[in-house]
Amino acid sequence: QVQLVESGGGLVQPGGSLRLSCAVSGSIYSPNIMGWYRQAPGKQRELVAIMTSGGSTNYADSVKGRFTISRDNAKNTVYLGMNSLRPQDTAVYYCNMEQRLYSTWGQGTQVTVSS
């Protein structure tokens, strides 16, 4: 069984930066896909970025050039670096892991972009 714990959210001004972390514990198999998703109030959860165990990445168009997903396999941690944050980036950000047909979610961390 895998558990995901997000951290690093908070309140930031427009144009600011944050880095989210997702600590993974439990049994980890390859191949797998780690991802960040977000859900704003009244909206559906949407993909932000994903990264395969092989290192391939994919980003939502709205965050390309501003957000960077990375993973430290030695620490079993996935990161989401977020720059040039905008008010529309405000949402609960969730970490996700897909492996062996199972999908696991973290509890989410709130990111609020406001002046």
Radius of gyration: 13 Å
Task: Give the N-terminus to C-terminus distance in angstroms.
Answer: 40 Å
User: Count of DSSP helices?
Assistant: 0
Given as residue ranges, the uncertain stretches (5+ residues, pLDDT < 50) are none
Which range does the strand content fall in? over 45%
Strand count, sense and barrel status of the largest sheet are:
7 strands, mixed
The rough form would be described as globular
- What is the helix content? under 10%
| Class inferred from helices and paired strands | mainly beta
Mean pLDDT: 96
Helix-strand string: EEEEEEEEEEE
Count the beta strands: 11
Task: Explain what you see.
- This protein has 115 residues and is mostly beta strands.
- Helices cover 0% and strands 57% of the residues.
- It has no helices and 11 strands.
- The strands form 2 sheets. Strands 2, 4, 5, 6, 9, 10 and 11 form a 7-stranded mixed beta sheet that branches. Strands 1-3-8-7 form a 4-stranded antiparallel beta sheet, with no helix packed on it.
- Strand 9 and strand 10 form a beta hairpin.
- The protein starts with a strand and ends with a strand.
